[in-house]
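Final report, section 2: Outcomes. Of the targets proposed, Oligopeptide ABC transporter, periplasmic oligopeptide-binding protein OppA is the one most frequently requested by collaborating groups, and we therefore present its record in full.
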Amino acid sequence: MVYNISHTVKKWRIIMKKSKVMLFGAMALTAGLALAACGSSQ
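The predicted structure is given below as tokens.
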């Protein structure tokens, strides 16, 4: 059981590193779309 927990934590850390990059990309994409929408509406 202890091994499973430590193994899951290792996996979770890897997922968190990847998700941080994905989250940053999603935020940049959303900001870009918002700017494009504002620019096209004016």
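The chain has a mean pLDDT of 88.
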